Structures are given as C-alpha cells and as structure tokens.
Amino acid sequence: MTTTAVTLPDTTYAVISAIAQQTGKTEADILQDAVQHYIAQFQHANRKQLLRQARGMWEHRSDLPDAVALRRELERDQTNQ
Length: 81
Description:
This protein is mostly helical. It contains 3 helices and no strands.
C-alpha cells in the first residue's frame, strides 16, 4: 500500500473526523472509501463515454457477417443441443 499526504481544509477534516466517530471507522478508512467511490463513478462515466464514442463504428462496414444471421445460427445451435 502506498501512503500519500493530503492537505484538507479544516472544515473538511472536521466533517471526516465526525463521520469517523459516528461510524467507528478511522479517518483513513473514510478517505479510502471516498476515493474508491470517486474512482467507481469516474470509471462508470468513462465507460459510458467510450461506449458512446464506439457507437456506430461498424455501421458502414461491408466485410462483417450479418448479425441477424449469426444470431439465428446461434439460436438454432442452442435448440439442437
């Protein structure tokens, strides 16, 4: 685990300290939880953005198999098993 120093305003630290007392966690636990939550939100938003950018990227390709035909073939294979 890596340690890093973070400078927080006194009011922010007071709130974190109060949350720690109320929850029985340490200030470090509260900050780790907050950072993990922030990372999860960022990854979700970033994933949405990447999906939006990728939308339609195969639309005008003629070298790909027909998706509907592939689905029918898969369904046919599954019913024959």
